[in-house]
Amino acid sequence: KTARPKVIVSRRLPQAVETRMAELFDVELNFDDTPFDQARLIDAVRRADVFVPTVTDHVDAAVLAEAGEKLKLIANFGVGIDHIDLHAAREKNIVVTNTPGVLTDDTADMVMALILSVPRRIAEGEKIIREGSWAGWSPTGMLGHRITGKRLGIIGMGRIGQAVATRARGFGLAVHYHNRERLPASVEAGLEATWWPTLEAMLTRVDIVSINCPHTPETHHLINDKALRLMQRHVYLINTARGEIVDEAALAAALSRRGIAGAGLDVFEHEPKIHPDLLNLPNVVLVPHMGSATFEGRQAMGDKVIANIQVWKDGHRPPDQVLEGWV
Ligand code: 8YV
Is 182 domain-assigned? Predict the structure, then answer.
């Protein structure tokens, strides 16, 4: 194969990753770090042997239609690949890889941070102090809801869902999950998790809901008005997966009418735009797509991208190849 493949990277990556890429490949970096628009995406898929996109690049069928013979590998920086049209890639014999495993713990930590922040009103408390409006302690001030003993319903019990379950048990949460496939009995027993064959049934029975499934045509707006109305009024919804899994307008409406108690959101339907109503609700904690944003995680993601490119360059099947119909 190509000795020094042309690798176009759409965003700035950790310095050590960029340096290593420059040693190994004919790498072209995007120094200004602005997300690629359609024209720059098309330019990249025409000129690169390997394109390294991130979640901010919409490598859709229209973009891939412009790819010539040269592009052979899309080595995504990130585990979620809903921004890449796998069918269009396969039609053109372009291999797609992602970075599973290395951001599991960080994302699960973010889930726990949000599970703790929303019911215990961390962000509200912060705001009161910074505004200078804290009048001092009172027995009835800033009361939230206890975590221990509540039921957590995890939607999607893959790597991240299981890492959430492990952490949740340490906080005394009872773990419930909905996944199309039930976990092997030994894994399920190890996590002390209860499987629900239907999402609807689980939603009516849990106190906290955490979304940990990929965004696919099947999970698009999985949490819509109907699903939100199945949840009890005291439920907190946590989303660190993909914004598009939730109908954000329906969520804002549910929160406004107190149909559910609160939400902790790391991802949004139209990033970086956020539904205006969410900004004004006190019972919502908002963080800007930070689930995997650790120095260690980003380095490991970069290492995986490099490993995938190298194995492909050597003529083998890259370790993290994503197949069409993977979900
Ligand atoms: C990244 C993510 O921040 O890996 C994913 O799917 O959402 C995050 O880890 C980002 O998407 C990387 O492209």
Answer: yes
What is this model's ipTM? Answer: 0.95
Respond yes or no: is residue 205 known to be catalytic. Answer: no
Give yes or no: residues 212 and 235 share one domain: yes
Q: pLDDT value at position 325?
A: 75
pLDDT one-digit tens code per residue, 35-67: 999 999 999 999 999 999 999 999 999 999 999
Tell me, letter by letter, the H, E, C secondary structure of the chain: CCCCCEEEECCCCCHHHHHHHHHHCEEECCCCCCCCCHHHHHHHHHHCCEEECCCCCCECHHHHCCCCCCCCEEECCCCCCCCECHHHHHHCCCEEECCCCCCHHHHHHHHHHHHHHCCCCHHHHHHHHHHCCCCCCCCCCCCCCCCCCCEEEEECCCHHHHHHHHHHHHCCCEEEEECCCCCCHHHHHHHCEEECCCHHHHHCCCCEEEECCCCCCCCCCCECHHHHHHCCCCCEEEECCCHHHECHHHHHHHHHCCCCCEEEECCCCECCECCHHHHCCCCEEECCCCCCCCHHHHHHHHHHHHHHHHHHHCCCCCCCECCCCCC
What pTM, to 2 d.p., does this model score? 0.97
CATH assignment of the domain containing 52: 3.40.50.720
55 Cβ inside 6 Å of ligand 1 = yes
Residue 271 falls in the annotated catalytic set: yes
| Structural domain harbouring 138 | 104-286
Indicate if ligand 1 lies below 6 Å from the C-beta of 79. yes
Domain count, the chain: 2
Decide if pLDDT at 1 tops 70.
Answer: no
Q: What is the pLDDT of residues 276-296, one digit of tens each?
A: 999 999 999 999 999 999 999
